[in-house]
Amino acid sequence: MVKYRISGTIETKLNPNFYYLRLRPEDKPITYSPSSTNAKPQPEEDNSVLEIYGKHSLKGQVKISGAKNSALAIMAGTLLCSEECRLTNVPQLVDIQRMGQILSAFGVKLQRQGEVLDLDTSNLHESNAPYELVSQLRASFFVIGAVLARLGTARIPLPGGCAIGARPVELHVRGLQTLGAHVEIEHGVVHAVVKGDRLKGAKIYLDYPSVGATETLMMAATLADGETIIDNAAQEPEVIDLANFCLAMGANIVGAGTKRIVINGVPKLHAVDYAIIPDRIEAGTFLVAGAITRSEITIAPVIPEHLIAAINKLQAIGVKVVSDTPDSLRVIPSYNLLGTDIETQPYPGFPTDMQAQFMALLTVSEGDSVVTETVFENRLRHVAELNRMGADIRVRGNNAIIRGVAHLSGAPVLATDLRASAALVIAGLAAEGKTIIQGLHHLDRGYDNLEGKLRQLGAKIQRTSGEVVQPVFTPTPYS
Ligand code: EPU
Description:
Low-confidence stretches: 1-27, 36-42, 468-479
Shape: globular
Structural class: alpha+beta
Bound molecules: uridine-diphosphate-2(N-acetylglucosaminyl) butyric acid
Number of helices: 16
Strand content: 15-25%
Mean pLDDT: 89
Strand order of the largest sheet: 3-7-8-6-16
């Protein structure tokens, strides 16, 4: 019998467009095809909204899904191998679906069952990625290194900017040139060709420790001839996860997680069964949700070490986080939240992907705080929406100056990017009355069933069609 797990009945009844995102077949495998989104409603057309009735405390344990940004890079990494790979702990996200479609356009056969994704990369018949797909998922540009190393040629459209910044890719391109690729950019497409039989190992210095460039170049170098050294490499846990995946396929990589990665190219990689690490950003988002609602919640599985910067800032705000087991974290409620300053940095610094969620928490923390965004040039768009909910935030350049207020009040707000949408959910959980969040296609890109998980913890949150609906919950304030 085919069983379906539906993460909430209200949304599926009210919004048929949402059905395909939230119907989670447990037994029935899904296959991907490059055109599969065309046959289905585009998430951007989805006009559903999240309704949150704030000031309810949360309680219990929540399961953290696999890391989006690891899974995306590792899916690209499967292109390096010409045998079948099995990935487990793959989160159920629109971005993962899109990466599946890109791989499928290259000729990869994919089959998904729950959190298990099988990829047969034995028969790549295409080295071109379609613009319609790349433009929807910026991370899909990261396939360029693997496709080039495997097929000797790759044509990948420039992904362009997105809601949080211009996001150029010159570090990827320059690195591939250093590895001996001939690269031309014409009509918005990067066309890279290997000179000779294989890419050639080389010394690469990255002007900035870009996560994507480190991943692209590490993948390309695994099949290159000789030794590659990447200096000023990104040290993010997702880079380590990709390196571990490549090692499991037979690659020779040392130093992932440090500023210098050394890769000795091998001629061929083999099949692997690999589990994706837990998502540190989803984990951090739940810790902040616990802190703002003054709730005790436990998150697992997690790798606590990946969350040190976030835990450190929670402690500065007055919120304790303890680890009862090696793979769990528990947030202990505090009624006295204090402002603090935060500056985003590459790992192990404070992650830009947690900036918006912490800003939501700081809006109701006593005193002044300054949040400085240094990684992306346009990642403060949630400020205007938080101010609509009663926050007191001023922006000066890349600084947001926050004066803590006694309470937020629910309002209709618009999610402007993925992490901004999580920040609005967090603010909504603490606000008085009802918050209505639009622009949920951002949230669905990167959070696996966020509202279902929050509901399980006791949050009063539901997805509706966007039409005016009567409240179904009676607000009972937690303080
Ligand atoms: N940059 C350049 N040139 C390049 C590459 C990057 O100037 O060739 C700049 C970017 O414009 C940005 C900065 O360097 O200002 C950092 O970009 P990076 O390349 O490190 O980011 P990314 O690889 O594009 C990944 C994550 C992001 C996360 C950043 C930083 C994936 C798929 N995405 O992006 O995740 O914010 O690293 O940690 O891994 C998210 O999940 O919400 C998200 C945006």
